[in-house]
Each structure stands twice: as structure tokens, then as C-alpha cells.
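[#protein-structures] MJ: dropping Coenzyme A biosynthesis bifunctional protein CoaBC here for a structure pass
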Amino acid sequence: MRIVLGVSGGIAAYKAVHLVRLLREDGHQVDVVPTAAAEEFVGRPTWEAISGRKVSTSVFSHVDEVRHVRLGQEADLVVVAPATADLMARVRAGMADDLLTSTLLATEAPVVLVPAMHTEMWRNAATADNVETLRRRGVDVMEPAVGRLTGADSGPGRMPEPHDIHAHLRRVLAEGPGDADPGPPSGAVTPSEGPLSGRRVVVTAGGTREPLDPVRYLGNRSSGKQGLALAEAALAAGAQVHLIAGVMDVPAPAAQDRLTVETVETAEELHAAVESAAAAADLLLMAAAVADFRPADYAEAKIKKTDDGTDPVIHLQRNPDILATTVRRRAERGTGPTVIVGFAAETGDAENDPLDLAQAKLLRKGCELLVLNRVGRNLVFGQDDTEIHILASFGVQGLLGDADPVHVVGTKQEAAQAVVDRAAQLISRRARSPYAL
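AK: finished. C-alpha cells for Coenzyme A biosynthesis bifunctional protein CoaBC:
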């Protein structure tokens, strides 16, 4: 495929370098068309080296080739990443005052704009009107990510990560030209027909990080892969998903239709986020690996080694039990998720099998389902494959008609599908049953 990658003048231009590499690894020919402002952030030699193609910004370069028309005519896809507020305003107005905007005006290929700007600019009425108009004309304007912006600012407006953009572009290319919405394959389940259609699902993912001093922290090996797979499975089942992302080895997805993303770092931040989001949820999937303890005292300065060799003493205190607290508050208030799914990462010990420990944990926590992961240095954490058991509490085994744990060995996507299917089945049966929380 021939892809034109436009780059407008924002600090996020550096991310587009990695996007070019990902597209080229897929075998695409990529012509990079930066604006003059974009070259203030990333120079032309970088674009030419990474794309293997000549780069220009002016309609007066290679005039004999009529590049401002030819690029758009020959493209299978035109992408602008980052797309600044200024660039989108000019595209909306149909301006053609440089090679990039001329190409966008001349092309009949699918166009994807990837916004990147400060929150105030994204929320400005003029930008909102421009985005609405562009989408109405058939331009694919991605939702920006939520997170750290230039300086100390944080909020919606951050450019999505290259891997997320790449995945989105793959879907666009798979649809084919002139078929922006081909509809589901024959026999496929659409979101409006899925078992969680109309349901609100909260998913926690990744680990927590408990600061000890300005440079050190207590953490764990959670990669976040299982949580992301659960969010994807819930979306595929038709749910409205709120992902609470802790510290992860993989990037959190960009917010999109039916998906919102909230980032946290510590167990206390995760606790507050769950308490807020779970109140209106139908299903809570607690896949995050929460640190059981945190330093009792935070050192404002880096803890130094002493000359006399004395070892420092670090006092720990318990973090809140988010799962048990959420279950208890649901019972006290009579509101909250219909189904709460806990996760147990167990190694077992000389006296106890991991499955026995998980059964005991399910009883203590009071949730409906509990997913057991057998973990260790080379098991589950960071891996793409997993082995899980899905346990049901005694009170709901009758509704499910199966007292034995569901055993899944496979990819984390397959495990996530099994968990979501089990939870959706329980929600459906509770809706038809007098069984109370």
C-alpha cells in the first residue's frame, strides 16, 4: 500500500518517526510530508532516513511531477499525525497553501487525522466544530489520548501512542477503499447484539507503584496485558468500558467509542478510581495487581547509604483491600456492580496448592467470581500465554449450573474471553432470577 504520512507542527512529531517504522515493517511505501513547522521539531534527514523516500514541504519542489496532486491521487491512505488544531482548521476550510494541505484536498483515499494539542485547544468550541464537520465529511478523526502533555499539564489532547495509531490504521486499510463501514462479517455479533450490550464494565489493569523516596518505589511484575485483553473482550461483547490503567509494560489504549481510560499509579489512587467508577457499573473486573503494602513514611530526599554500613529500616503499612471494600460497600448501600470478579495471583507453598488458596480468598472477599493465576518468575507476568481457573462462589454456583472451576490454558485473549463470557452469563441469569446480592 502507498501511504502518505503528513506531520504538522507539534511536539508530538517525534512519535511519528516510530509510526513510519511500524508502517514500513508492514511492507507499505510511506511518503512523509511534513509542514514547515514540523521540521522545527524533526528534521528532513530523519524523515528521509526512516522512510527511504525523498521528503519535501513545498509545492514548488519537483514541479514536473505535480507532487501536490500526484501524492494524493496515488495514495491508498493519507494520515496526519500529529494533526494540530491549526492543521485541522485549514483542512476544514479547504485550504491548500502547502504540500500537505494540497495533498489532502486532492486525494480521494481514506483520510485519518490524529489530533495532538493542549486540552484547552481540544475543548475549544472552534476545534469541536471543526472536528464535527470533518467527521461529517467522512474524515476519520481519532480521539486523542488522555495523559501528560507538554510541561506539567495533563488531560485529553495527548497524541495516541504509535502502536495504537498503527492498529487503527490497520483496521482502516483492512476495510478497503470506498468501504468505510463494511458491516460485520456474516454471522458476526455486533456490539448492539453482544451479551454485554448496554452494560457498563469497569476493568482495572497493571500494577501499582508505591513511592519510597523521589527515585525508588515498591512495585510488582504485572505487565497489564491481561487487563487490556479483558477490556477488549468486554468491548467486543458490546459493553461501555472504563479502563483504570495502573503501571503497565504495554501502552494503555487511546480513548475511543465505548472506551474511556483513566490512569493511576498508587493503590490509594486505584482505590479512589474504583470507588468512583464502580458505583454505576454492571460488572467490575479487578485484574490489577495491587501492592499489599506501601512505605509508612515517604522520604522527601533520596535515602543515602551510610558510611558506617548500617542498613536502613523501612516500615511498611497495609494498603486498602480494594476488592473486599467494594464488595462490602455494595452490600451496605444496596447499589453497585451486579457482578464483581476478583483475581488471585498465587504461587502456592509447601502446605497449600494455589487452587486451595484461591478458594479461601474467594470466600474471604465475597465476590461472585475469582480468577486464579498460577504465577512465578517465568509464569504469566509479561507473557502472552496464561493458565487460569475461574471459580464461582457457592452462592452463585446454582445460577451457573456448574460448581467446578472453569480451566483455560491459552492466550490471555482466550482467557479474557472466558472470563467475560462467564460474567455475562451470570449477569443475564441474575436479571431473570430473584437471587439478591
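MJ: nice. The chain has two domains: 2-175, 191-431.
AK: one more thing. Residues 338 and 427 are 7 Å apart (CA to CA).
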